[in-house]
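HUMAN: Can I see a protein plus its fold?

ASSISTANT:
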Amino acid sequence: MIQAVGLTSNPRKALPPAVDDVSFEARAGRVTVLLGASGAGKTTVLRLMLELQQGRGLTYFRGRPLHRIAHPSREVGVLLGDVPGHPSRTVRGHLRMLCAATGVPVRRADEVLEVVGLVSLRDERLGTLSRGMDRRLGLACALLADPHTLVLDAPADGLSSRENLWLHGMLRAHADQGGTVLTTTADPKEAARTADRVVTLKEGRLVADQDAADFARTRLRPRVAVRSPHAARLAALLTKEARTARCSVEVVQEDGNRLSVYGSTCARVGEAAFRHGILIHQLADETGDMNSNGVVTAAVGVVAAEAHVEASATTDCVESDAHADTDDSFDNPAEAEAEAEAEAEAETEIGSEAEVEGTDTTPPTPAQSPSLPSPRAADALSALPPPISVRSAPSPLRPLRYELRRAAGISTGFLAGAAVLVVSALTAVLLARVGHTPQARLLAAWPAQLPLPPAALGAGLLGALAFGDEFRHPALAADRGTVPRRLGMLTAKLVVAAFTALLLAFLTIGCNAEVLYLLYGREFAKVPGDWLALTASWFGLVVGCAWAGVLAAGVFRSTTAGLAAVLAVPVAVVPLVQTAAGNTSVRTAAGLSVRLREVLLVQWPFGGERYLSAAVRLVAQPVGWALALSLSTLLCAYLFTTLSSRVR
């Protein structure tokens, strides 16, 4: 269950708080609806409950606040606004990425897609989905980890009437299985029809907390909906008869030829119209909102017959005594028999129209299988996806799977890599044509006038996108408010960024050498003599730029900031390191391996002394010192922001 106590938002300047001291309970096994007009504070209440907005008050989900739950997505399924996903990612790819993040099997994505009716759209991009399809995808994301509690903000927004029936049936099935359902709506009739308990908000304050039956009795009232080409005449007759009989009857003339009669029944209105020979096109019982003045569409029964009230009197809204009075009005048995046949035909037509138009608003029971029309056909769907078993122990591969699916799910990384290879090849060709370029710089396509080669800049850009896209399209922040800063996620991003950078560095050298060999011959594509040290330096430079982009984007929450940090290494940090290295107080790193062997009194195995000396020479270079200093500073800043966010 959900227990919300004293939820109050922080006021802004001289304005009152959007939500002021709201307290309620949403019990397990029941559907609770937050009802209120636009601006009443429904979404603010949900954001305060989910700790997405600063304020006062407490909210407990089965006795625990959200920040005390190890895996919030397994306890609470959230739907707030549009789906926060990359517009170029496919529907199925987005769900599979979230499966890796929450630790559920990959097949779960296909199961929830089938439930919400998006199987035919699984290869569509998120940016091309309509409003209704986006709501269905958001519902699929909420159901992905099989949560106990569903918190949905206006889930029926953008759905058709038939899709609303399916949605309410699925929410009812979730509640019948012991789950907790909390939704919001602005329609009182929808709240009375679908909820077990209705919590009414007005101007940020709680005005009522009632069962659905009490809400319908106090907030809604029954009425008779009438459509007739002589609506004004019928309204005058009904008002006159009510005054004569001293009955409390209210007749409201709606748009066009529609009347709403309060305080009467279908039988009385039909008999009055029959006595005065007034043609009736519709006669139905409805439930209307006391504050609503518009046309109400939640009809229980609909009659559409171009006949007098004799034919319309056979609908469900007319009582049995009205049938007897109508049948007794015919003196000729032949006419009575013909009228009975006409009534039977009218009932058949009414039933078929009701099936086609879907006017039955009775929500499906949990035993039934609600249906949702797919974009191409209406397929029978199960009420809920099958339950799943989620491992409680954290897996170190879960963040790595998430990062791999995140990076491979969109074409940005592939396009950036292809652009880097093309630019590097063209730069290498131009440098070879100009001449006077060392062989190492020629293969790396690194002109002396540029601070970094194209491969290093591309690796830095891909690293910055790893965290920049998380903050721009926060797929993991639906129930947390911000992108989670866990060390496991940082490690996964660094590993994937390093692998991508190594692959990009290798392909760059290979493509440049191949292009130079094809255009200028073997002389320009030969391998330098000290290729081992140069290869280590090259790989270290590219990987270091990629890691700098990852850490900077994670600290500053921006892809641009991550790329700027990569460019700042050769432009600003390297000159500082060169200035510091020119000072005589700085000790040289020469002979470090020998001194370590003398201290440890251990012989280096497998020629480790040579590799250590190469690594020390690599780091001792100005660019190596600058990268090491930048990475250390950014890592400390990331850890500091992580700890400060946890403290808050």
Observations:
- Confidence is low (pLDDT under 50) at residues 291-382, 390-394, 583-587.
- The two ends are 26 Å apart (CA to CA).
- Residues 443 and 509 are 6 Å apart (CA to CA).
- DSSP finds 23 helices and 15 strands in the chain.
